[in-house]
Amino acid sequence: MPRVNLGLLTLATGILLSQMLPVGTSKPLAVEPQGHEATNVGVGHFHSAMGYYNTAYHHNTWLQTTTGHPFLFQVEDQGRILPIHNVGFTASGRIPSGAVGLHYAAGNWRTWSSPLNESVRSALDTNNRKAVNFAVIARPDAFRGSQAGPSTYRDLADSLGIVVNRSNPVENLSFAELRKIFLGEQSHWSNGRRITVVMLEPGKQERQAVLTQIYRMDDKEFDKHFSQGMSSGEIHATPKTLATSTEVLKFVFNVPGAIGYVRVTEADDSVKVVHVDSHLPGDKDYSIRLHPKSGKQ
Fold it and tell me: What structural domains and CATH numbers belong to the chain?
């Protein structure tokens, strides 16, 4: 009879998997049949296999050897950068290696989300692709309780976030409004502040995505558009060009009327990410991506 981990409980049961899945639950769920130590598989909500604290002390914080998780492994709703929570498939087990005690862990999943307004579980995936996590860990017999080894996590930062100064009252822009702003056809915000558009320099992948999807131009057409517009007086200012996303964030933070774009994973609390057509980066129908869907602008 297999031993099954369900959520945070360990059950000895032989019932069918479908009978163990509660209907309509909003609680994190992990079903993990445990058989031979070489292979254990699971499906549900997990901590990704990155770092000792993220797996060894999932909820048992009282047993930690420190007062809290190290900064790097603190959870997403505290503003940290690593994808700690995921939902999907996982496999782990022991690799025959004698006293070295090699183990592996692998997962294929998305960031966990929930309709509940609850910190981590309300976080959304930033793209429409799954992530892959793989780790090899040594737990030598000579050093009980210790482990070391590499871990890799691969995902794709697919969406671009449109960012404005936090004092800007705008929360949502239609795509048509956004395009008018970037084309220089709208020069002021509703509060009267002059708009300053920020672009990354030519050659950047993010710039190319914005040219293709918002401007619907290439670099030559972009330059011609603003050259002619400034000459005719129809456009009053050209976009400011910066070299890096860090410079974009700093500029938008310091200039109340600024608007720009960065990869959504690079946006931080110094700026505000606005909705586009009532969607945020990570939403299925969000339109501004590094890799636009075929046949859709």
Answer: 3-154 (no CATH), 160-276 (3.40.190.10)
